[in-house]
Each structure stands twice: as C-alpha cells, then as structure tokens.
Amino acid sequence: DAPTYYNAVVKPSGKDRQSCLFRPMYILFLTVFFKLFGPSVLLAVFLNIFLFSVSVCALYGIAVILFGSRTGFIAAVIFAFYPSLLSLSLFPFTEPLFLLLFLSGMFFFFLFLAREKVLDLIFAAAFTALSTLTREITLFFPLVIITLIFLKYARNLRQVVKITCLFLMVYLVVLSCPLIYNYNIIRRYTPLQTTTAYMNVIKQHMGPF
Known about the structure:
The chain is mostly helical. It contains eleven helices and no strands.
C-alpha cells in the first residue's frame, strides 16, 4: 500500500486517486507536509515515527485513566517496542496516523466517562470519525462506544440517549465530509469500503483452514 499513498500525493494516477477517496486522511496529511517541505519518502517515514511516538502517549493516557500510572507506563513500553508496530512506522503506511487518531478518540471518551465534560465527548467522536477516514475498519466501532455508554448510565436512560445522540451526531458529521468531496470528484456519493478491511482481519486471525 505504501506506493499507492505516496504516489497519490506526488504523482497521482486515476487509479491511485480513486482508491484514496475511500480513506483520505493520510493522503491529506501527507499533502500538507509535502507542500511545505517537498515530497520525500524520508519525510513520510519521519512523520510516521512522530505519529507513532505521540500514539504511545495517547495509549499511556488511556491506561492511566483506567488502571493507574504504573500500568499505564508498562502498557506504553510494551506498545512502543512492539515489533510489528515499529516496522510499520518505517514506511509510508496509514497505521501510525490511524493509531494516533483512534487512541486519541478513546482517550477523550474515557476522559469523558471519568469527568463527564461535553467537550471530551465531542473530541472523542471527532477523532473516532477521523480514524475511520484513515482506515475504514472502525466504521462500526461506535456500537462499542454506545454499549459502554449504556453500561455507564444504565440507570438513567435519558442520559444514555442524550450522550449517544451527541456522539453519533458529531461522528456522522465528520464522516460525511468526504461524501461531499467524492461527489464533486466522481459525481456520486461513494461510501467507505469495509469489505476488504474486515476480510483482512479475518484472514489474519483465522489463519489457514
């Protein structure tokens, strides 16, 4: 996938551009820095290393909220030196940006559950949507969020409905932005593709039959 993302910014063909309509965030991210500093694979790798480093901090924050600082430190160290994640940071792949956006969304969500500030919930929904626009495998992850909201506020169904509606509203607004862009480019509202993403997960975890 690395050549596809790099070429979509540097020398886009019709095929590369079309494939990236479904997951535009990483392309937009690279475009900004390539416009500022010029196209370079080394720059893309440096940015991915930076993104991965910040995602370690986001994971640490989540673990601290849930389990305390000691567990947070252990989780961050394991995550930071996990071989496959480190290797993905050395190529122009989407994973580092996806991890940062997804973990940021989870950080703000658990922060919301801890202190119940509306702004935290808005940030959680926005970052979750942006992670979906990076890798569409989290398209249905809000179902997990809704379940956690219900478990937290099961005794107050009105609160469950209010929080769920706010989260979904922000999530869908952010997610719908590429639909308008896609319509301007190819004259149809192209939804995110999920089949390939879920099939990859199934293959990775089921192995050979």
